[in-house]
Amino acid sequence: MQSNSTAEAGKPLLEVRGIQKIYKVDAGEVEAVRNLTFDLRPGELVCLVGPSGSGKTTLLKIIAGLMAPTSGEVLLEGTRITEPPKDMAVVFQEYGRSLFPWMTVRANVELPLKTAGTPKAERTRLVDDALAAVGLDHVPTSYPWQLSGGMQQRVAIARAVAYQPKVLLMDEPFAAVDAQTRADLEDLVRHIWEKLGVTILFVTHDIDESVYLGERVVVLSSSPTVVQEDIVIDLPEDRDQLTTRSLPRFVELRNHVYEQIQLAKRNAGKQGAAAADGAGVPRSAVPGADTGGESVART
Ligand SMILES: Nc1ncnc2c1ncn2[C@@H]1O[C@H](COP(=O)(O)OP(=O)(O)OP(=O)(O)O)[C@@H](O)[C@H]1O
């Protein structure tokens, strides 16, 4: 795995530059995203949070090359993205719709490699490794509908991992599973990230999840969206559901993110002047914050 310091020293792998998205609707136009600028360095795990409707899915579609921005650009290793890049994989929330029910687990994981023309022997090795990495090497011949929701999402993650992307985009991947499974899958993502050194952009509604997983948390404003804050998560790299979430620093950071989301909601419709000036938002390190009270942690 690349350590934080290595990632910090490298050039950006993914650059999001001044992204604006205006949707045309019957009544005219909707400016969903106004001006988004941030980057991911090689090996970073960055979480993206924002109020509902702040444009997280819009942004991911643009980064994945599935939709063109109205203005601005996304660069992967310096090359502008104009179509789905081959070095990128996406894991969506709706695993049920992203897996083919008539294909076995193995066939689902193997499919993108087949499409890419990867030779058979290499495919077999990559699929075996990916299934082992997500703890599913005992069910290769099962069908997705025979598995629990959490296991199906593991299949989707294995498929993305086997493809060996440079960038893995995850769009609220655990929103549809129960809390215990969610915790297990969060640890799986950290484990895969540490083992493979893949660069991950993880979109979530869950503030605690963003702080637990991320090396940085990028907070979006309400729509029309800008980056409201880019926060360094200075928790120890070895994370554990019990120990990490009990740390006073974890509580400070999640409270800070929570306050930022509340601020974004209050500012809805009256963009904060400082955030909306179009400049890149500097990364902020949260000083010791007050840890009072709030227990709700979803956007
Ligand atoms: N195809 C579309 N046509 C018109 N407006 C759209 C379209 N897709 C999204 N929007 C609008 O753009 C804004 C951002 O939507 P988007 O789904 O990207 O936000 P989000 O942060 O992913 O939302 P959520 O957190 O609820 O999933 C919203 O105001 C939404 O209504």
From TrEMBL:
Keyword Isomerase attributed: no
Xref: InterPro entries: AAA+_ATPase (IPR003593), ABC_transporter-like_ATP-bd (IPR003439), ABC_transporter-like_CS (IPR017871), ABC_transporter_ATP-bind (IPR050166), P-loop_NTPase (IPR027417)
Alphabetized GO MF terms: ATP binding
Region of interest called Disordered, as start-end residue ranges on this chain: 272-299
Keyword check for Transport: yes
Keyword line: ATP-binding, Nucleotide-binding, Transport
Domain of life: Bacteria
Gene3D superfamilies xref list: P-loop containing nucleotide triphosphate hydrolases
PROSITE patterns recorded: ABC_TRANSPORTER_1, ABC_TRANSPORTER_2
Pfam families: ABC_tran
Ranges for domain ABC transporter: 14-247
Name used for this protein in its record: ABC transporter ATP-binding protein
Species annotation: Arthrobacter gengyunqii
